[in-house]
Amino acid sequence: MQPSTAIRPITLALSLLLLAGCAEFNSGYGYSNRYNSSYLQSDFDELQAFGSGMATMPSSTRAKTCRSLLKQQKISPNPDIYLRLMIGRLLSDACGDISRILSGVNSIPPGNMPDARLQRLVTIDTEILKRLNNASRRHGSQECSQRSEPSGPESKSNNGEKKNETRLLREKLEAIRSMEKHLDENEEAK
Prior knowledge:
Blueprint: H1 3-19, H2 35-38, H3 44-56, H4 59-75, H5 79-91, H6 98-106, H7 116-147, H8 153-189
Helix pairs in contact: 1-7, 1-8, 3-5, 4-5, 5-6, 5-7, 6-7
């Protein structure tokens, strides 16, 4: 598998979150410290706001939020935390093991998700996590086979490819940010 195919699921996940619409995340970066009252009843808009807030956080703050979610999930597991971990895992590896998150989300009784939009979001995010999990497994096995290959001119060309891929990824990220800004402007105009 080429490195660009490993990045595609992440780009897809971010794009889907943006296409679902962006909501303001009013509580800022301090969200992880206020989980008790926030997890009582998640709905689509609340999860969307959570995902949007996570997307705008620096990676260190995302990791801190994920650790808080994982800690709370161990203390008092409930569907709302699993849903937040699911969304958080799309944005940060620190949100835990994909298999465990999917197992937790699959254990949520259908009656706890009466909102059709929420059900569709969970379905989409579940499939994205499955793809990410499969891609990371393939990438791990590919790394093992590459370790045994000799380095040389090919490794130099791979380095150039990585730089091009990084540049393309940055361009895509800027395009996503531009789309998000445009969506926010449209929401404010309404």
